[in-house]
Amino acid sequence: MAHGTLLEQPGGLGPRRGVRATLRRYALLPLRVFLGITFTYAGLDKLTDSAFLSASGPGSLGELLDNVRPTAGAPFLIDLAQHSPTAFGYALAIGELLVGLATLLGLWARVAATGGALISLVLWLTVSWSATPYYYGNDLPYLMAWLPLILAGAEHFSADNALRLRRRRGLDMGLGVGD
After folding, report:
1. Residue 17 falls within a domain, yes or no?
2. Residue 46 and residue 87: Cα distance in Å, rounded?
3. Per the domain annotation, does 168 fall within a domain?
4. Residue 172, in any domain of the structure
5. Is residue 164 part of a domain?
6. How far apart, in whole angstroms, are the C-alpha atoms of residue 151 and residue 140?
7. Per the confidence metrics, is the pTM higher than 0.70?
């Protein structure tokens, strides 16, 4: 079997793909599902945690920001969030929720992955920056995990693919966009 080449099916039924090609086609699906579930859960967890969304007090984002500012890699980001910790908490939670749901659905997959990478980058530069050794912090691996999805998008089991096929069918039938 050649790598990723089409082979003729027995009985003249047309081309078939090898196992390797099939596995390669779906290789990013487990990563997409994991990141989608994780970010959806993280967003919902924040939205349902009244302590987290408080400006101050135990378990609040305000307290967390105060604690990590001295060791943050980008303290100016902490300063921005400290102007309104509650609003920043809602923005973070809603951002995680939207990124997670869009990733699960494969809707605007590259945009969602870019959003996930930006959230992970901000969290790494602020909350996880002081982790020693660096690989103890969890936000850097999340940042790296988003990169293949930025590059490849969501080809299979995705709303993006369904929309692409729908547009292609419309063009094949001689219909223009908006007809």
Report:
1. no
2. 12
3. no
4. no
5. no
6. 17
7. yes
Q: Report the distance separating Cα 30 and Cα 42, nearest Å.
A: 18
> 22 near 29, Cβ under 8 Å?
no
| Cα–Cα distance, 143 to 107 (Å, whole number) | 19
pLDDT in tens, 44-58: 999 999 999 998 999
Beta bridge partners of 7: 16
Q: What is the pLDDT of residues 3-36, one digit of tens each?
A: 544 444 555 554 556 888 888 889 999 999 999 9
Number of domains in the chain: 1
Q: Is the model more confident about 65 or about 22?
A: 65
Which stretches within the chain are classed as H helix?
19-25, 29-47, 61-68, 75-82, 85-105, 109-126, 139-152, 159-172
**How many residues make up the chain in this entry?**
179
| Full DSSP string of 16-59 | EE-HHHHHHHTTTHHHHHHHHHHHHHHHHHHHT-TTTTSSSSTT
Judge whether 106 and 161 are in contact, CB under 8 Å: yes
| Token pair 């090898």: residue | 18
Tokens in use for 7? 């082979």
Rounded distance between C-alpha atoms, residue 49 and residue 91, angstroms: 14
Band of pLDDT at residue 176, cut at 50, 70 and 90: low
Pair of tokens at residue 20: 């390797």
